[in-house]
Design a protein that fits this description.
By secondary structure, the protein is mainly alpha-helical. It has 15 helices and no strands.
Length: about 425
């Protein structure tokens, strides 16, 4: 038998990503409560979000380089210890500055998740299975965002907002024990059969690629494909995570002190997009499509699927808005499963985490700029008592971002060839 232990590894990555997004989603659900207690404006909240994204950007750059040196096992462990302590530290904050500091620490720690996970997938899967594996573990982001609207309001009502941060933050230490017990690289893992190891290594690079200096990665078009793909689309996902609860609360009077079925359904749908997006490009490859063509055409389709979110401005019922935003959020996760996998398509394994870190930095920089713009837009419309109109402007940007990014990617590298050195 070939063996399937690699899917156990994906399950570990899935749960880590679930916890990652659960911890970062808590503040968005507590935003109305904390706004009243701390007298935050939309701009104040946007700066707290920017503290997270700026720190996340720097952390991605650092973790990407470090994980390529020390390996995914130790790198992942360090990452989750930092972010779990930081998540719990939110309970000690009393001011917006305190929350900004806690968010910065959380961002620095959480930055290790994706560089470590993408490197792990590259180590454990042949190319034709990587997008599906990435889609599966990346769907943990949606599950985390789905669980949070149910779990956090319950904790808030039963215990208080401090306990919401403490309880969700502590979950990471349970995962850490499982990771340390069950994970090792394929060649050293006792549960990997000879047949499965041969399958994992069946699409290794046929020619030796010399180690690439970190500074030289910026000279490759392939690096800029990932940078552009992340810079213009990651901020949209930050918006979904940090502002959708507030949007539904202000536009449709959704009570965020109670478990939210609307948000839970929305983020459940995005899991379908994540796994389906990974499956589609792999299916096209099995049909004989070249790797670059399967990835690029899949991403073009997902970019088109994001456009209908523009129609949310005409939604008169909360379920209409949930439907339109669910399509766009699902398209983002499908896009994400493929844009991440392009790194392991184009770069040797020893450079994967570094490139993911660089691209993640670009995405987070976009995530610093976009929240500031959101805060300014929403505060200006709030002054005119037309906050929902401010969200309509933002939805237009969300609907156009993916097509714009795809066009730039196509211009930079039409065939997304593998790096040769």
């Amino acid at each position: 038998m070939k063996g399937n232990y690699r899917w156990v590894v994906v399950a570990l990555l899935f749960f880590a990503t679930t916890i990652n997004y659960l911890d970062r989603q808590v503040i968005g659900l507590l935003k109305p409560t904390l706004e009243k207690e701390l007298n935050w404006s939309e701009t104040d909240y946007s700066f707290i979000v920017m503290c997270f994204t700026a720190s996340y950007a720097i952390g991605l750059l650092a973790f990407g380089k470090v994980i390529d040196k020390i390996g995914s096992k130790m790198g992942y462990a360090i990452s989750i210890v930092i972010w779990s302590f930081a998540a719990m530290a939110h309970a000690l904050a009393k001011t917006s500055f305190g929350f900004g500091a806690a968010r910065a620490a959380l961002g620095a720690g959480e930055a290790g998740n994706f560089p470590a996970a993408i490197k792990t997938v590259a180590e454990w899967f042949p190319k034709r299975e990587r997008a599906l594996a990435t889609g599966i573990f990346n769907s943990g982001a949606n599950i985390g965002a789905m669980v949070a609207p149910i779990m956090v309001p319950w904790i808030l009502g039963a215990y208080g907002w401090q306990e919401a941060f403490i309880i969700t933050g502590a979950i990471g230490f349970i995962w850490l024990a499982l990771w340390w017990w069950f994970y090792e690289v394929p060649a050293k893992h006792k549960s990997v059969t000879t047949e499965e190891l041969a399958h994992i290594q069946s699409e290794e690079e046929t020619s030796e690629v010399a180690p690439i200096a970190w500074s030289k990665l910026f000279g490759y078009r392939q690096t800029w494909v990932f940078i552009v793909g992340k810079f213009f689309t990651d901020p949209i996902w930050w918006f979904f995570l940090f502002w959708l609860p507030s949007y539904f609360s202000t536009t449709f009077a959704l009570d965020l002190k109670k478990p939210s079925l609307h948000l839970a359904i929305l983020f459940t749908c995005t899991s379908i997009g994540s796994i389906g997006g990974g499956y589609i490009s792999g299916w096209l490859m099995k049909k004989g499509w070249p790797v670059y063509k399967a990835r690029k055409y899949s991403m073009f389709f997902f970019a088109l699927c994001a456009v209908p979110i523009i129609g949310a401005r005409w939604a008169t019922d909360i379920w209409q808005a949930v439907f339109l935003i669910s399509i766009a959020a699902s398209a983002h996760q499908a896009w994400s499963a493929n844009i991440f996998t392009t790194v392991s398509d184009m770069f040797p394994k020893h450079a994967v985490s570094s490139v993911v870190g660089i691209g993640g930095l670009a995405g987070s920089l976009g995530g610093v700029i976009f929240p500031y713009i959101i805060g300014v837009i929403l505060d200006s419309y709030k002054a005119d008592q037309a906050l929902s109109a401010g969200y309509n402007v933002i939805f237009v940007a969300c609907g156009c971002a993916y097509l714009f990014a795809w066009l730039l990617i196509h211009f930079i590298s039409p065939q997304m060839k593998a790096v040769q050195s």
